[in-house]
Amino acid sequence: MPKTVTASEAQSRFGSILQWAIEHSEGVIVERRGKPSAAIISYAEYEELTRLRKTEKKRQTLETLQIIRRRVQRQNTDLSAEAACRAAGFGEAIIQETLKKDDDIATMEP
After folding, report:
1. 8 Å CB contact between 40 and 27
2. What residue ranges do the domains of the chain occupy?
3. Is 33 left (phi over 0), alpha (psi -120 to 50) or beta?
4. What distance lies between CA 18 and its chain's CA centroid?
Protein backbone atom coordinates (compact mmCIF):
# COMPACT_ATOMS: atom_id res chain seq x y z
CA MET A 1 0.00 0.00 0.00
CA PRO A 2 1.47 3.38 -0.94
CA LYS A 3 2.49 5.81 1.74
CA THR A 4 0.16 8.80 2.12
CA VAL A 5 1.06 12.20 3.57
CA THR A 6 -0.69 15.52 3.89
CA ALA A 7 0.41 18.47 1.75
CA SER A 8 1.81 20.28 4.80
CA GLU A 9 3.74 17.15 5.85
CA ALA A 10 5.11 16.81 2.31
CA GLN A 11 6.22 20.42 2.41
CA SER A 12 7.95 20.17 5.78
CA ARG A 13 9.52 16.72 5.22
CA PHE A 14 10.08 16.80 1.46
CA GLY A 15 13.66 15.51 1.54
CA SER A 16 12.89 12.45 3.66
CA ILE A 17 9.70 11.69 1.73
CA LEU A 18 11.58 11.94 -1.56
CA GLN A 19 14.29 9.63 -0.24
CA TRP A 20 11.65 7.13 0.91
CA ALA A 21 10.02 7.12 -2.55
CA ILE A 22 13.39 6.49 -4.22
CA GLU A 23 14.51 3.77 -1.80
CA HIS A 24 11.22 1.88 -1.82
CA SER A 25 10.44 2.33 -5.55
CA GLU A 26 6.95 3.23 -4.50
CA GLY A 27 5.09 6.49 -4.86
CA VAL A 28 4.02 8.68 -1.99
CA ILE A 29 0.52 10.10 -2.29
CA VAL A 30 0.11 13.71 -1.22
CA GLU A 31 -3.34 14.62 0.05
CA ARG A 32 -4.83 18.08 0.18
CA ARG A 33 -7.91 18.49 2.35
CA GLY A 34 -8.14 14.71 2.69
CA LYS A 35 -8.14 14.01 -1.05
CA PRO A 36 -5.25 12.68 -3.17
CA SER A 37 -3.85 15.55 -5.22
CA ALA A 38 -0.35 14.50 -6.28
CA ALA A 39 2.23 11.78 -6.04
CA ILE A 40 5.96 11.80 -5.47
CA ILE A 41 7.67 9.08 -7.47
CA SER A 42 11.24 8.21 -8.35
CA TYR A 43 12.61 9.41 -11.67
CA ALA A 44 12.84 5.78 -12.87
CA GLU A 45 9.12 5.34 -12.21
CA TYR A 46 8.41 8.61 -14.00
CA GLU A 47 10.40 7.45 -17.04
CA GLU A 48 8.50 4.14 -17.09
CA LEU A 49 5.16 5.93 -16.80
CA THR A 50 6.13 8.25 -19.66
CA ARG A 51 7.21 5.28 -21.80
CA LEU A 52 3.94 3.46 -21.11
CA ARG A 53 1.89 6.56 -21.98
CA LYS A 54 3.75 6.98 -25.28
CA THR A 55 3.29 3.30 -26.10
CA GLU A 56 -0.43 3.46 -25.37
CA LYS A 57 -0.88 6.67 -27.36
CA LYS A 58 0.92 5.08 -30.31
CA ARG A 59 -1.26 1.95 -30.01
CA GLN A 60 -4.43 4.06 -29.99
CA THR A 61 -3.24 6.11 -32.95
CA LEU A 62 -2.41 3.00 -34.98
CA GLU A 63 -5.80 1.52 -34.10
CA THR A 64 -7.52 4.68 -35.34
CA LEU A 65 -5.45 4.65 -38.51
CA GLN A 66 -6.42 0.99 -39.07
CA ILE A 67 -10.09 1.96 -38.85
CA ILE A 68 -9.62 4.79 -41.35
CA ARG A 69 -7.72 2.52 -43.72
CA ARG A 70 -10.44 -0.13 -43.54
CA ARG A 71 -13.12 2.48 -44.31
CA VAL A 72 -11.19 3.68 -47.35
CA GLN A 73 -10.65 0.10 -48.47
CA ARG A 74 -14.35 -0.77 -48.05
CA GLN A 75 -15.31 2.25 -50.14
CA ASN A 76 -12.76 1.28 -52.76
CA THR A 77 -12.77 -2.52 -52.81
CA ASP A 78 -10.21 -2.70 -55.62
CA LEU A 79 -7.53 -1.04 -53.44
CA SER A 80 -4.85 -3.04 -51.68
CA ALA A 81 -4.22 -2.31 -48.01
CA GLU A 82 -1.15 -0.30 -48.98
CA ALA A 83 -3.05 1.73 -51.60
CA ALA A 84 -5.85 2.35 -49.09
CA CYS A 85 -3.29 3.71 -46.62
CA ARG A 86 -1.88 6.00 -49.28
CA ALA A 87 -5.39 7.14 -50.26
CA ALA A 88 -6.12 7.88 -46.60
CA GLY A 89 -3.06 10.17 -46.58
CA PHE A 90 -0.77 8.12 -44.34
CA GLY A 91 2.97 8.80 -44.35
CA GLU A 92 5.40 6.07 -45.39
CA ALA A 93 6.44 5.11 -41.84
CA ILE A 94 2.81 4.75 -40.75
CA ILE A 95 1.99 2.73 -43.87
CA GLN A 96 4.79 0.28 -43.15
CA GLU A 97 3.86 -0.04 -39.48
CA THR A 98 0.17 -0.51 -40.34
CA LEU A 99 0.96 -3.20 -42.90
CA LYS A 100 3.28 -4.94 -40.43
CA LYS A 101 0.52 -4.94 -37.83
CA ASP A 102 -1.86 -6.42 -40.43
CA ASP A 103 0.71 -9.15 -41.14
CA ASP A 104 1.18 -9.83 -37.43
CA ILE A 105 -2.58 -10.19 -36.95
CA ALA A 106 -2.90 -12.41 -40.03
CA THR A 107 -0.20 -14.80 -38.74
CA MET A 108 -1.97 -15.10 -35.37
CA GLU A 109 -5.31 -16.08 -36.91
CA PRO A 110 -5.94 -19.84 -37.30
Report:
1. yes
2. 3-41, 54-108
3. left
4. 25
DSSP 26: -
pLDDT in tens, 32-67: 999 999 999 999 999 999 999 999 998 898 888 888
Q: pLDDT > 70: what percent of the chain?
A: 95
Residues 62/97, Cβ–Cβ less than 8 Å: yes
From CA 10, how far away is CA 21, in angstroms rounded? 12
CATH of domain 3-41: 3.40.1620.10
DSSP 25: T
Compute the average pLDDT of residues 70-77. 80
64 vs 68: CA distance, rounded Å: 6
Q: Are strands 35-40 and 3-6 parallel, antiparallel or unpaired?
A: unpaired
The β-bridge partners of 39 are 29
Instruction: With beta carbons less than 8 A apart as the criterion, state whether 25 and 45 touch.
Output: yes
